[in-house]
Design a protein that fits this description.
Blueprint lengths: L2 E2 L4 E8 L5 E2 L12 H14 L3 E2 L13 H16 L8 E6 L9 H9 L5 E6 L4 H14 L5 E8 L2 H4 L13 H5 L7 E8 L11 E12 L8 E2 L16 H6 L6 E2 L4 H17 L8 E6 L7 H10 L9 E2 L2 H4 L6 H12 L7 E8 L4 E11 L38 H18 L3 H7 L5 H27 L6 H14 L2 H11 L14 H14 L7 H26 L8 H26 L6 H22 L7
Parallel strand pairs: 5-6, 5-7, 12-13, 12-14
Antiparallel strand pairs: 1-9, 2-8, 3-4, 7-8, 9-15, 10-11, 14-15
C-alpha cells in the first residue's frame, strides 16, 4: 500500500545538466554509430523517441568532463540555491542511481565527499528509473518520523561513458540490437529535491507549500524476466564477475547496457493496472489531478499510456501532462526530479492543485507513483486522510473498507474530527487485514477449531461492552445527562449481545458450557482494563472514540469477512447470528454515535472533547489490534 505523509513538504528543487545541449545532428561526435546497422537503428529510434536535445558529461573525445558525483553535487547546489538554504541544515542525504563512479563505496557517500558536506546520515539506492523515487521516499520518511527536519534526495545518471565507440572495440564494433538501442535513448543529468517539515514556503512560490501526500512503489521482479540490465551476457547466463578478467567480460558483451524492448508492453500494462488500483482505492482522483508528470523513455509511449488509461476509464486530459523529455533527454532515475524541478520553476501553481507523478522502471519491472498537493503556507488546512489500500474481502471484490463515517459528508463542525478519526481507521483496518486471523480467513485456512477459539476469546470481551458503557454514562456530570441517557440506551440494547455470541459458539460445537470459564486473550484483557479505567474518570467523553472503532469493526470489517467464514465452515446459519446481527445493525448504532458526538461537542466548553475522542480511538484501535493478533493463540480456560 502507499506510504502516506502528513508533515513532509517539498521546499525546493534543482537540476544540473552538463555542458551544452547536444542535438540529434551532433550526437555522432559523442555516440558514434558502430556499423551500418547501428546507423539505421539510430535513425529509427530518434524518429520515434521525440528527443531533440540531450546532455553528455563526456567530451567529443570520450573524456569525462564531469563525474557522476559532480553531476549530483551540481544538482544539490542548484536546489539549495533555489531555496536559499545552507547545506549545514540538511541531516540526511539519500541518492538514487543505476551506478556511481565507483563500484564502492556508496554513491551518497561519494556525493557527500564531493560537496565536502558536514557529517550526516546517508543512503544509497541502487536501481534504475524508480531509484530516484526510492531516494525521495527514504528522505520523506526520515522527515515524517521526526528524525530529520530537512533531507535531500538526489538522483544522477551518467550512461554516456558506456556508449563510447571505444567500448565496443573488443567485439569488433559488432553488438546485438538490445545494446544498440539504449545508446540513442539515454543521456546524462541530475536532479535534487529538498524535503522539510514545512517551516518554509515553496521556493519561488511565496504563500504556498507543496505537500508530499504519498508515495507508492511496487516491483514485479518475480513475474517477469530481466528487461534492462548491465553486467550480464546477452543470454543472461553469466555475470561480469564470472569471467577471468574485465577484458574477457567486455569481449563477451557482459559490460554492455541492454534493454529487451519486446518486454516493454508488459511494463505499461502493469503500471496502468496499478494506477487503476490507486484510483479505485481512493488514493488519487483523475479529475482532481491538475498536472501529470509521466516519465517515459520515448514519446512513442505517450499514446500507449494514454490509451490504456482511457480504456480503464481513468484518463487524465493530455493538456494536463508535462514532460521535458524533448529538450532534457531521458536521464533514468534523475528524470522525474529534473522534470519536477523544471516544472516548478516554469509553472505557476495555485492552492489546492495536485501534481501526480508516474515512473515506470523496465529493469525488472517496477512502477512508482507520487502525489503532491499545493497548500497555503500559513495555517495549513487539516490534511485529508489517505485511504489505505484494502485487500480483497472476497476473491471477486477489491472494494475499500471505508471508515464508519465519511468526513466529506460530516455534519457542520465535525469535518476535522471525522477526518482525524478516518486516518486512524484506515491504519487500523489495514493492520487488522494483515493479522494471522484474517489471513487464515482470506486464504481459506480458517477451520472450525479456529472459529471456536476466536469465539472463546471474543465472548468475554463482548460481555464487558455494556458494562463499561454504563460506567462511563454514570461518570458524566449533570450537563451531560442527555448524552448519558443516549449511551445508556445503547448499552441496554447491547447488554445481552454476548449471549447471542455464546449461543452461536455452542451451535458451532463449542464444548465449554459455562460462560464464566471463558477467558479474554492478552489483547482483550488490555482493552477491557483500559476501557473500564477510562469509564471511571470524570466526564469520559473519549469513550466515544472507543465506540467508533468497536462499532466500526462490527459494521465494516465483520461483514467483509463473514462470506469467507461461511464459505469455509459448513455450519448452520444459526451459528453466525451474532456476526449477521452486527453487520446489519451497527449502521444504526453508528448513526446514534454521530448524534452522541454532536451532543458532546455542543457541550464542550473547554474545547477538549475532540482531542479526547481522537486519542481514545487511537488507543482503542491499538488494543483491539492486539486482541486480533492474539486470537490464533489457544487460551486454556
Amino acid at each position: 500500500m502507499p506510504v502516506s505523509f502528513q508533515r513532509v513538504y517539498l521546499e525546493s528543487a534543482g537540476y544540473f545538466m552538463p555542458g551544452e545541449p547536444v542535438s540529434n545532428e551532433h550526437m555522432d561526435a559523442y555516440i558514434a554509430p558502430l556499423n551500418r546497422m547501428s546507423e539505421r537503428i539510430k535513425r529509427r529510434i530518434l524518429a520515434e523517441n521525440g528527443i531533440r536535445e540531450r546532455y553528455y558529461a563526456i567530451d567529443a573525445e570520450g573524456r569525462t568532463v564531469h563525474t557522476n558525483a559532480q553531476l549530483a553535487a551540481g544538482a544539490i547546489r542548484h536546489c539549495l540555491q533555489q531555496g536559499a538554504v545552507e547545506l549545514s541544515r540538511v541531516s540526511l542525504l539519500a541518492s538514487g542511481s543505476s551506478g556511481g563512479d565507483a563500484l564502492m563505496p556508496g554513491f551518497a557517500n561519494m556525493i557527500q565527499g564531493e560537496l565536502a558536506a558536514p557529517p550526516m546520515e546517508t543512503l544509497s539506492v541502487h536501481g534504475i528509473c524508480a531509484a530516484g523515487v526510492s531516494a525521495i521516499q527514504a528522505a520523506a520518511q526520515g522527515v515524517e518520523l521526526g528524525a530529520h527536519r530537512s533531507a535531500l534526495a538526489v538522483a544522477s545518471e551518467m550512461p554516456s561513458r558506456l556508449f563510447k565507440r571505444s567500448r565496443f572495440a573488443a567485439r569488433g564494433y559488432d553488438t546485438d540490437f538490445d545494446s544498440h538501442f539504449l545508446r540513442w535513448m539515454l543521456s546524462d543529468g541530475a536532479g535534487a529535491l529538498l524535503l522539510s517539515d514545512g517551516a518554509a514556503a515553496l521556493a519561488g512560490a511565496p504563500g504556498l507549500r507543496l505537500r508530499l501526500k504519498w508515495i507508492h512503489q511496487r516491483a514485479f521482479s518475480g513475474d517477469y524476466p530481466v528487461c534492462m540490465q548491465l553486467g550480464l551476457t546477452e543470454d543472461r547466463s553469466r555475470g561480469h564477475l564470472d569471467f577471468g578478467s574485465w577484458g574477457e567480460a567486455e569481449a563477451a558483451g557482459a559490460l554492455a547496457l541492454r534493454q529487451d524492448i519486446r518486454l516493454l508492453p508488459h511494463l505499461f500494462d502493469i503500471g496502468i493496472h496499478e494506477y487503476a488500483g490507486l484510483v479505485r482505492e481512493g488514493w488519487v482522483d483523475p479529475s482532481r489531478v491538475d498536472h501529470f508528470l509521466c516519465h517515459y523513455s520515448s514519446e512513442k509511449f505517450i499514446p500507449v499510456v494514454d490509451d490504456l488509461m482511457r480504456k480503464a476509464g481513468l484518463a487524465i486530459p493530455r493538456e494536463r501532462w508535462y514532460s521535458n523529455l524533448a529538450w532534457r533527454g531521458n536521464t533514468g532515475a534523475a528524470s522525474i526530479m529534473i522534470m519536477l524541478a523544471e516544472f516548478l520553476q516554469t509553472k505557476s501553481l495555485k492552492a489546492g492543485e495536485q501534481i501526480f507523478c508516474y515512473v515506470p522502471e523496465s529493469g525488472r519491472f517496477m512502477a512508482a507513483y507520487m502525489l503532491f498537493e499545493v497548500e497555503e503556507s500559513g495555517a495549513a488546512a487539516a490534511a485529508a486522510p489517505a485511504p489505505v489500500r484494502a485487500e480483497a474481502a472476497t476473491e471477486a471484490s477489491t472494494e475499500v473498507i471505508a471508515p464508519p463515517h465519511d468526513p466529506a459528508a460530516a455534519p457542520e463542525g465535525l469535518g476535522e474530527l471525522l477526518t482525524e478519526l478516518a486516518a486512524i481507521w484506515h491504519d487500523y483496518r489495514s493492520r487488522v487485514w494483515r493479522t494471522p486471523l484474517v489471513q487464515q480467513i482470506r486464504e481459506r485456512r480458517f477451520a472450525l477449531a479456529d472459529y471456536l477459539n476466536w469465539m472463546e476469546n471474543w465472548i468475554p470481551q463482548v460481555r464487558e461492552g455494556s458494562k463499561w458503557m454504563r460506567e462511563g454514562a454514570a461518570s458524566l456530570a449533570e450537563p451531560y445527562q442527555a448524552l448519558a441517557a443516549l449511551i445508556g440506551l445503547h448499552a441496554g440494547e447491547e447488554q445481552d449481545d454476548f449471549m447471542i455470541l455464546f449461543n452461536d459458539y455452542r451451535k458451532a460445537g463449542g464444548s465449554i458450557a459455562d460462560i464464566d470459564a471463558l477467558r479474554r486473550n492478552p489483547g482483550g484483557e488490555a482493552l477491557n482494563a483500559y476501557l473500564h479505567g477510562l469509564a471511571a474518570t470524570r466526564n469520559p467523553i473519549g469513550l466515544l472514540g472507543a465506540i467508533y472503532v468497536i462499532e466500526g469493526t462490527g459494521q465494516r470489517i465483520v461483514p467483509a469477512l463473514l462470506p469467507l467464514i461461511k464459505a469455509g465452515l459448513k455450519l448452520p446459519p444459526e451459528a453466525f447470528r451474532f456476526l449477521e446481527y452486527h453487520g446489519h445493525n451497527d449502521e444504526n448504532h453508528l448513526s446514534r454515535w454521530l448524534a452522541a458526538v454532536e451532543m458532546a461537542m455542543a457541550l464542550d466548553s473547554e474545547g477538549r472533547a475532540a482531542r479526547q475522542i481522537v486519542d481514545t480511538a487511537r488507543h482503542t484501535a491499538a488494543l483491539y489490534l492486539m486482541q486480533f493478533q492474539h486470537v490464533t493463540e489457544r487460551i486454556s480456560p
